[in-house]
Specification:
7 strands; binds NADPH dihydro-nicotinamide-adenine-dinucleotide phosphate
């Protein structure tokens, strides 16, 4: 039977590579994002179904449900990124001032919304449609272990929340796991803010001596959603070329 796959933030980068992978396997793939243009391009290229949705907004998720089939086999919570990269640079109001605290709270919440609440809301919205034997895969980050301000905290929160999700979905035969990438090139993640020297540092930190590719992550997502991974749940699978080693 053809599986139905929903990939959030699937118009670019890792989500786009995952969409290509699942389409290549013969699955029926839905991709979402806030901007129609990248989604429409991908729909034309590989025949995915593209739906505009901001996964931080409950009302957008309600509208999304109306466009999705009654059964979803695999949910990939990939939408997200470090919202600090998009924040406008403001004059420093002085650490601890009211203005500073308001701006700090706003920036912190933006990362929690983008990476943690978005995945939790989407999973809750889809709960009744997730098929027995299916899979939920979240995209976490090496930042959850190595730190990166509120972005790292949001990805660490995602990993912690997934523990409970795996327990809740387990009796229905549905797995829930996190894929935690290290530095992945050829995505829009860093905007234009990654300096050459920092890029070199990130590559030098790997044992493989190279940046990860969106396809490296896509193949790991596909594995976790495959028949070969039915007893893997509540886990974090790291895809970082050894930049963060686990025991
Ligand atoms: P991209 O910026 O290319 O992809 C992120 C996608 O998510 C975009 O297509 C974006 O589209 C979409 N998106 C963001 N916020 C929302 C939202 N609220 N609702 C719907 N769609 C949204 O970067 P990556 O492919 O690299 O990022 C994919 C995931 O991988 C992210 O969760 C990121 O944190 C994680 N990651 C990336 C790493 C890297 O080095 N590249 C390392 C570790 C983790 P739009 O703006 O149109 O909504």
């Amino acid at each position: 039977m053809t599986r139905t796959i929903l990939i959030t933030g699937g118009g670019t980068g890792i989500g786009r590579a995952a969409a290509r992978h699942f389409v290549g396997q013969g699955d029926s793939v839905f991709v979402t994002g806030r901007r129609p243009a990248p989604l429409d391009r991908l729909a034309q290229e590989i025949g995915v179904r593209a739906l505009v949705c901001d996964h931080t907004r409950p009302e957008a998720l309600t509208a999304l449900l109306a466009e999705l089939p009654e059964r979803v086999d695999v949910l990939v919570n990939n939408a997200g990124g470090n919202t600090d990269f998009d924040a406008e640079i403001r004059a420093d109001p002085g650490v601890g001032s009211r203005e500073d605290l308001v701006a700090y709270a706003e920036a912190f919440r933006a990362n929690l919304d983008a990476n943690l609440i978005s995945a939790a809301l989407t999973t809750r919205a889809l709960d009744g449609r997730l098929a027995a034997g299916g899979a939920v895969v979240h995209i976490g980050s090496i930042a959850a272990d190595q730190g990166s301000g509120s972005y790292g905290a949001s990805k660490a929160g995602l990993t912690s929340w997934n523990v409970d999700l795996a327990r809740t979905l387990g009796p229905r035969g549905i797995t829930a796991n996190v894929v935690a990438p290290g530095y992945i090139a050829d995505t829009e993640f860093f905007r234009d803010r990654l300096a050459d020297q920092r890029r070199e540092q990130l590559v030098a930190a790997t044992s493989t001596g190279r940046a990860g590719s969106p396809d490296d992550v896509a193949r790991t997502i596909a594995f976790l959603a495959s028949a070969g991974a039915r007893h893997i749940t509540g886990q974090v699978l790291h895809v970082n070329g050894g930049a963060h080693a686990t025991r």
